[in-house]
Amino acid sequence: MDEDHYNTARGVQKVLSNYKDLQDNEINKLTVAHARKIQHFRSQPFHVAEVFMGAPGKYMELKESIKSFQGVLDGKYDDLSEQSFYTVGGIKAVIAKAEKIARESAP
């Protein structure tokens, strides 16, 4: 495990751990938003779950996964909704889903 992988994994663990303590405390709203996005992003469709999810599994390279989670921790995707992170593959799929949601909700 390289240093980026370790630091990102520890950052994800810290945010999720803090999320349980913070919940929806207004002061810590950004940390809570990051934790929710991380939880949703971890729900990517796995190949072994295709039968249960009714959708094909997605594979994400480890480096892409680390970079994506680090982007969430750094606030790079703060403008994307939590819903965009749910049951998608990589971060490109998250961005595409966010754009689709925005188009569909536009008047």
SSE topology:
Blueprint: H1 3-22, H2 29-41, H3 50-53, H4 62-74, H5 91-105
Helix pairs in contact: 1-2, 1-4
Tell me about this structure.
One of its GO terms (cellular component) is proton-transporting ATP synthase complex. Its EC number is 7.1.2.2. InterPro entries: ATPase_alpha/beta_chains, ATPase_F1/V1_b/a_C. It comes from Punica granatum. The chain is mainly alpha-helical and 107 residues long. It has one domain: Orthogonal Bundle (Bovine Mitochondrial F1-ATPase, ATP Synthase Beta Chain, Chain D, domain3), CATH 1.10.1140.10. 61% of the residues lie in helices and 0% in strands. The protein is built from 5 helices and no strands.
What's the short story on this structure?
61% of the residues lie in helices and 0% in strands. With 107 residues, the chain is mostly helical. It has one domain (3-105): Bovine Mitochondrial F1-atpase, Atp Synthase Beta Chain, Chain D, domain 3 (Bovine Mitochondrial F1-ATPase, ATP Synthase Beta Chain, Chain D, domain3), CATH 1.10.1140.
The residue ranges in which pLDDT falls below 50 over 5 or more consecutive positions are none
Helical residues, percent: 55-70%
The CATH homologous superfamily is termed Bovine Mitochondrial F1-atpase, Atp Synthase Beta Chain, Chain D, domain 3
The proportion of strand residues reads: under 5%
Helical stretch tally? 5
GO biological process, one term: proton motive force-driven mitochondrial ATP synthesis
Keywords: ATP synthesis, ATP-binding, CF(1), Hydrogen ion transport, Ion transport, Membrane, Nucleotide-binding, Transport
Main location: mitochondrion
Subunit structure: F-type ATPases have 2 components, CF(1) - the catalytic core - and CF(0) - the membrane proton channel. CF(1) has five subunits: alpha(3), beta(3), gamma(1), delta(1), epsilon(1). CF(0) has three main subunits: a, b and c.
